[in-house]
Amino acid sequence: MDLLKNRELFLVKKSLHAKVEQLLAACIPHLDIEIRQSGLFSKEDLLKVPPKISRGENYLGFPWQILDYPRLFGKEDVFAVRTLCWWGHGFSLTLHVSGKYASEHLPSLLQHLPELVRSEFYTCQQADQWQHHYDKVNYIPLSELSDVENAVKNHFLQHGFLKFMKKFQFDDWEFFPEKVAENVRLLLNALKKD
């Protein structure tokens, strides 16, 4: 009951929401540079869709805020880079592709898997592409897979999507936009055909 009476608690929460939103917004110019320099999207609708920051109060019991950029969410086809702040857990950056985007980029992603392994990325290993938590039932480090290429390929063939995620700690706050940009550059390079 005392918590309900504590007005300061609610002011702190409101202030923290604003700070996280400012941090996610600070990522946008960095991502914009990486996206445009990648050359991947010159003919895509992806460049026409503006960045979006969303938030909620209850993802598995915890508040969350997310930046989607670039983003294109179709019924079957998804291309999104999602930067998530999951309160109490940390930050994550996820490349989420399904449908035609996953089919188009699968060969390049398979070729660049060693770079994603070295950079400590995780891959989604369950059938529900809308789960974002970090538990091993959902994500596994690429480095822990005995046959990374076949595991990724088989996941796509069975479920029609791919997700590659990198975790960050809240301690990464100061240089977070730069870290996000660096890892987005790596992901976008992994989408390019050599």
Note down, in words, how this protein is organized:
42% of the residues lie in helices and 27% in strands. It is α+β, with helices and mostly antiparallel strands and 194 residues long. The chain has a single domain (2-191), classed as 2-Layer Sandwich (BirA Bifunctional Protein, domain 2), CATH 3.30.930. It has a seven-stranded antiparallel β-sheet with strand order 1-2-3-4-7-5-6.
Name some characteristics of this structure:
194 residues, alpha+beta, BirA Bifunctional Protein, domain 2, 7-stranded antiparallel sheet, 6 helices
Secondary structure: helix percent: 40-55%
Looking at the structure, what is the overall shape? globular
The CA-CA distance between the termini, in Å, is: 61 Å
Q: Tell me the Rg in angstroms.
A: 17 Å
Number of helical regions? 6
Counted beta strands = 7
Name of the CATH first level: Alpha Beta
Low confidence ranges: none
How do the helices and strands follow one another from N- to C-terminus? Answer: HHEEEEHHEEHEH
Would you give the CATH topology? BirA Bifunctional Protein, domain 2
Q: Please report which band the strand proportion falls in: under 5%, 5-15%, 15-25%, 25-35%, 35-45% or over 45%.
A: 25-35%
Backbone structural class:
alpha+beta
CATH architecture: 2-Layer Sandwich
What is the spatial order of strands in the main beta sheet?
A: 1-2-3-4-7-5-6
The whole-number mean of residue pLDDT values reads 90
Number of domains: 1
Give a short account of the largest sheet.
7 strands, antiparallel
